[in-house]
Fold:
Amino acid sequence: MTQIIQSDLTTSQPASRLLSASTLAADDVYNPKGEKLGSIKELMLNINSGKVCYAVLSFGGFLSLGEKLFAVPWSALTVDTDNQRFVMDTDEERLKTAPGFDADNWPNMADATWEKNVNTYYGTTF
Structure:
């Protein structure tokens, strides 16, 4: 379950929202219609910038059997603090045709062509 932490270190700065990365594992992802799309399995960080680049979303399958994984650009997700989950503006049918991979065959996420293709698919910038 996502843990939202409010932080206000000085009175002159607005509060910032921080998420504990360990609480994101297994958080659910829904679309704006309230349909569950899957759950977060991993976060992919850029070690140079310290920013989250992708959330690895698990979709389909049962008890991890037959599930498909997707690297969803972080900017394609929003946090629904009321329901403590993520929201992604897509539907199940579109997700079925998204570029994905299985747990034993991860793509090279540092590859510029792969990055461009994923961001183009989700309509995000890279």
